[in-house]
Fold:
Amino acid sequence: MTMVALTRRNALAALVGTGALGIAAALPQCTRAALASEVDPIFAAIERHRTAWHRFIGPGIDDAEREGAGYVEQEAWDDFADTHPTTPAGLAAMAAYATHAPSGAEDVDNLLRAMRTIATVTAHFAAKAVAV
Structure:
């Protein structure tokens, strides 16, 4: 069996490789409890986008209303893509929504913005976990 030195870089790589759920499991129990009690802004951003999308595709609106609803939907996606989750559960929810979102994911640039946010927050959680 090959022994690998435990360095901050190795630990970060291992945590990032496990994904958001692995990071949540790696956090000490007291930290997980504190994070779970926070109100994570990503859940509201997801709901805003979901609501805007349903309005955009909904029946009974004319072309002008649909165009306006499209702008609202895009703004909601932009907000979602730029919102930094504050909990591991929020990070997992953002990743899941980004990969299954009904609209914003169709535009590669929009999806990449969300993925950059996810990567940034994942690295932040991993660094906090290593520091504990």
In short: The CA atoms of residues 24 and 88 lie 5 Å apart.
